[in-house]
Design a protein that fits this description.
Elements lengths: L1 H19 L6 H6 L27 E4 L3 E3 L2 E10 L2 E9 L5 H21 L11 H18 L2
Antiparallel strand pairs: 1-3, 2-3, 3-4
Length: 149
């Protein structure tokens, strides 16, 4: 009987500990909640550098907001041609130390390639570059929102 009581108490304690853990937040969830990272400046980003041809199919270059990550800021400029993403340029990437620069130089080309394939901000994070990936997706979505895509 004593063995059953110890087993029950241990099981209940284990369940309570498991339920108290917080779930992992991925890049897709972070995009839906931009309040986690505020833009680095209070000023709005500049409007598109090229005029729209139509509202249904924007053309031009749009600058996303700057998002501060744990390792530094991330900001992108997205070029659209008739609503299609044709180029993504990283204006700012984490560069506070050599390791951050190395990670960004590895991750940004992969994220850009995925963006051009997906034609949206719904892309996977690069393993080992979670913070950079989250900042990239947030700035990308910000630029696409400004374009009205």
């Amino acid at each position: 009987m004593r063995k059953a009581a110890v087993t029950t108490v241990s099981t209940v304690a284990g369940v309570v500990l498991l339920l108290s853990l917080k779930p992992h937040v991925n890049a897709a969830t972070t995009v839906a909640a931009p309040s986690r990272s505020a833009p680095s400046s209070g000023a709005p980003s500049p409007s598109p550098s090229t005029a729209h041809t139509t509202s249904a199919s924007p053309t031009g270059t749009y600058t996303g907001d700057t998002f501060n990550t744990r390792y530094g800021p991330v900001q992108l400029a997205v070029t659209l041609a008739q609503g299609k993403i044709t180029a993504v340029k990283a204006l700012q990437t984490p560069s506070g130390d050599g390791r951050s620069q190395q990670i960004a130089s590895y991750a940004v080309p992969q994220l850009t390639s995925e963006t051009l394939s997906a034609q949206s901000a719904r892309i996977d994070a690069v393993s080992g570059a979670t913070y950079t990936s989250e900042g990239y997706v947030q700035s990308l979505q910000s630029a696409l929102d400004k374009a009205g895509v």
